[in-house]
Amino acid sequence: MADYPPASLSEGVKKLPEWIQLGCGDKEYNCEEKGATFLAANLPEKLPDLSEHNNIFAEAMRANPGIYEELKNKTTKLGVNIGHCIKTGIDNKGHPMIKTCGLVAGDEESFELFKPIFDPVISARHNGYAADAKHPTDLDVDKISDTKIDPTGKYVLTSRCRTGRSLRGFRLPPCCSFDERREIERLVVKGLKKLEGDLAGDYFPLAGSRSFGEKPNGMSSEKEEYLRERGNLFQEPDSTLLLSSGCGRHWPDARGIFHNNDENVFVWINEEDHTRLISMEKGDNVKEIITRFAKITSALKDVLKEEGVEFMHSEHLGWILTCPSNLGTGLRAGSMAKVPLFSARKDFKDVCKKMGLQVRGTKGVDSASSGGTWDISNADRLGKSEVQLVNIFIEGVAQIIRWEQALENKEDIEEQVAAAGLPEKY
Questions:
Q1: Which site from 93, 170, 286, 399 is most exposed, i.e. has the minimal number of CB atoms within 10 Å?
Q2: Phosphagen kinase C-terminal domain spans which residues (predicted)?
Q3: 333 annotated as ligand-binding
Q4: pLDDT tens for each residue of 1-14
Q5: 276 is known to lie in a ligand binding site
Q6: Calpha distance 185→178 (Å, rounded)
């Protein structure tokens, strides 16, 4: 193990730039080149200057600077301190156009012990979500809207639904140990390999991972290329935002991808969350995608229960995940839709926001569109149930496609667009 985590770096990581290597070993990310030098292992007496930071955490701290003093000497039962949670928000001043949370949880208890900072960040990120609010959970697929998003089949290329689940009793990826991560992989893969029927499949560790006995060197280079070409492969963190969060430690050990034989269900293990579950297919058959999504989440819950393990969940926060932005449902139902005329409007993103939708380019957050094709999904995660969010997405994208068709026919849609908003019942 001398050439492998936790003692050293894996061979694949050694080929990467040094500023990435520094976040993929056993230690906290400490990189002078990137200004990422705040350390949870050596908390300063006073909070660093956050006057130039643009993230939700920094705003909350500027509004109440006494929070750091209140929390700096507290530690969760699993050993997480406030530094582990806020390091990424201090190391990264933020993007002028994208406001991140600037805060992650090191374990489930973090949300409770460090409430004075998590609560205002959660409220700001989730439309004023109250500290005593209760989150509704509902995955009854019979309640999914029957509205056809794209009746012609001309506009929607692919659709998918994804969420995450965390295993109770373990620290979250920013803080989990080498051995914890391996145990999470073992439990989840053991459960996934019990799945049958249309969920049956196989597990592929990341190339270079030595944690999984059946594939001691991880997936083959051919499999890696196959998954990458289809957008189903995750790789080492390549941003200081992720490296400072701690999610790159011990890379690529105990990380990998399960998919079913039909390749329309994927489970990512030990990326930014313990698990990320994805259901996808070409076209707009969202009801089928959500039905399969509900099936995989339920099936994984059941098989893990046999091992005495349950998912992190609370009445207040719903499903517990690493980043506050993904609390609640953690759900993002989205379609890659080609709407070049409607998306050419200057108010395109603003109109989508009014409808409860989030718009991304073809390669993720803040990327550009390609030929008028956009990834359109639900914007909210917390405070509304899975069924509500999926229906907001379905009704919203269906409306956008109707407007695209109207513009193709040279029809006036200004009055309709001006009245756009969330469907009344949601």
A1: 93
A2: 155-407
A3: yes
A4: 678 999 999 999 99
A5: yes
A6: 11
